[in-house]
């Protein structure tokens, strides 16, 4: 004796080409596995600077000028990005792990960090960071 197989799913009717009815199967609602939002631009730039530094150190790329040619940007822009590596390690970590942005402008921009990046002493960088965040 064979038993029948029953399949249950939700369907919806839509109008197709020239007014014909088309049956579409509804996709089950899925919860996102990861949080919604986008990674802040400055965090992506920080990660890019770290990766580009690895490329230069491993001699896969000769210098910043090669990076600029590969990335189709100016050498000055590469320098701005690479200057992020001058930040204190704890500030770099904070930048890399900034919360996701859901809408609007990011909390921290690269332009905000430029004066801090120019400071050589990490102790002073930390003080400047605290002053800017207040």
Compact description:
The chain contains 6 helices and 2 strands, in the order ββαααααα. By secondary structure, it is mainly alpha-helical.
Keywords:
6 helices, single chain, mainly alpha, two-stranded antiparallel ribbon, 2 strands, 134 residues
Task: Give an account of the 3D structure.
With about 130 residues, the chain is mainly alpha-helical. Helix content is about 45%, strand content about 5%. The protein is built from six helices and two strands. Helix 2 packs across helix 3. The protein is elongated. The chain starts with 10 loop residues before the first strand and ends with a helix.
Strand order of the largest sheet: 1-2
Shape: elongated
Helix content: 40-55%
What value does the average pLDDT take?
A: 85
Approximately what portion of the residues adopt beta-strand conformation?
Answer: 5-15%
Count of alpha and pi helical runs: 6
**Termini, distance in Å?**
77 Å
């Amino acid at each position: 004796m064979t038993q029948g197989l029953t399949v249950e799913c939700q369907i919806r009717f839509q109008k197709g080409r020239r007014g014909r009815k088309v049956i579409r199967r509804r996709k089950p609602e899925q919860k996102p596995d990861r949080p919604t939002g986008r990674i802040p631009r400055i965090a992506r730039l920080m990660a890019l600077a770290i990766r580009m530094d690895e490329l230069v150190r491993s001699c896969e790329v000769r210098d910043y000028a090669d990076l600029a040619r590969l990335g189709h940007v100016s050498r000055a822009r590469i320098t701005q990005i690479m200057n992020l590596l001058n930040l204190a390690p704890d500030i770099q970590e904070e930048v890399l792990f900034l919360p996701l942005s859901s809408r609007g402008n990011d909390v921290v921009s690269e332009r905000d960090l430029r004066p801090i990046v120019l400071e050589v002493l990490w102790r002073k960088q930390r003080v400047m960071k605290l002053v800017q965040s207040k």
